Amino acid sequence: MKRHSYRYQRTIAQQAELTGVGFLTGATVRLRFLPAPPSTGVVFVRTDLRPPVQIPAHVDEVTGTQRRTTLGKAPAHVSLVEHVLAALAGLRIDNCYVALNACEPPGLDGSARRFVDALHSAGTVLQPARRAVYCTDEPISVCSNGATLTLHPPERDELKITYVLDYGARSPIDRQLYTQVITPEQFANSLAACRTFLLENEAAELRRQGLGARTTAADLLVFGRRGPIDNVVRYANEPARHKVLDLVGDLSLFGHDLRGHVVAYRSGHPLNVELARMLSRQLVDNGTSHCPVQLLAA
User: Fold this and answer.
1) Are 16 and 118 in contact (CB under 8 A)?
2) What predicted TM-score, i.e. pTM, was given to this entire model?
3) pLDDT averaged over the chain?
4) In angstroms, rounded to a whole number, what is the distance separating the alpha carbons of residues 91 and 187?
5) Cα–Cα distances in Å, from 264 out to 140, 152, 260?
6) Contact at 8 Å (CB) between 149 and 267?
7) Mean pLDDT along residues 132-148
8) Residue 11 phi/psi, 5° resolution?
9) Is 67 exposed, middle or buried (0-12, 13-18, 19+ CB in 10 A)?
10) Which strands, in side-by-side order, build the sheet including 140-144?
11) What are phi and psi of 166, to 5 degrees?
12) Strand 28-35's sheet: what is its strand order?
């Protein structure tokens, strides 16, 4: 990894708030976005704990990646952070406190749209500190069980993400490919409204675990044998777009901007976070220039 450039940091101009039901706990959750000083980063604040606990949104704080990204250790933890992180990173908001009265953000419709709307209503301000932008000279890859995720060197001054979604020939979700250059405008217009999705059997298993008690198929995308149940897709390739949204959120845990082309094949939160962890390690190791491939255990 090497430093590509800098840009000035940003925070929000004023507080923004929204309320909704948590997908996991079924709790009514109040979330507040609050301005933060330069170089604070994104920090989740569990206001329901005494005393309140701050959990930095950094890859070193990740404690779980099974179907969702979790930061911190119970009881001082927060799960399903990826959509909030994607909204902040997609809009290039670097410093923000995210105050929550529960262990998860409100699920809303399973997308980042309402988070983006709230942040747009708050506005943004430039700050005097600079944020480093990094890139690589050679591809950096992680892989596991046939899934791969690679950061390629930049061809232009941009971050581009390509996702190939492939659940196999018998899946109710067709093979999909989506590519997007990540800018605040493109994130808000092309990615923010894309909802999380799961298969009918996966939804049933979550219910058996006692999760999602107040969530129905109409609240997010649940795919049965004939397609979405009690719902319709917003884009023909909405699942692949949502995977790009998740990548934006998970890669923000690196703590710096990236330039280059991220190419993902069937990757999920474990690989996303592992790539962020590898990039972070390379900075600590003074930016080694070889081309490592990380193999994850099955």
Assistant:
1) yes
2) 0.92
3) 92
4) 7
5) 12, 11, 13
6) yes
7) 96
8) -135, 180
9) middle
10) 176-181, 159-165, 260-265, 147-152, 140-144, 293-295
11) -150, 100
12) 16-21, 28-35, 96-100, 42-46, 53-56
Give the residue-averaged pLDDT of 17-38: 95
Q: Give the lowest-confidence range in 47-61, 139-153, 204-218.
A: 204-218
What values do phi and psi take at 17, rounded to 5? -140, 145
Residues written for the chain: 298
- Sheet of 62-64, strand order: 62-64, 70-73, 76-78
| Residue that the structure tokens 């190939």 belong to | 164
Place of tokens 């999920």: 268
Just list the catalytic residues.
269
Who contacts 287 (Cβ-Cβ below 8 Å, separation ≥6)? 1, 2
- Token pair 């710096």 is found at 256
Q: Which of 194, 171, 220, 174 is nearest to 21 (CA)?
A: 220
Find tokens 């009514």 and name the residue: 28
* Angle, in degrees to the nearest 10, between helices 269-284 and 238-251: 30
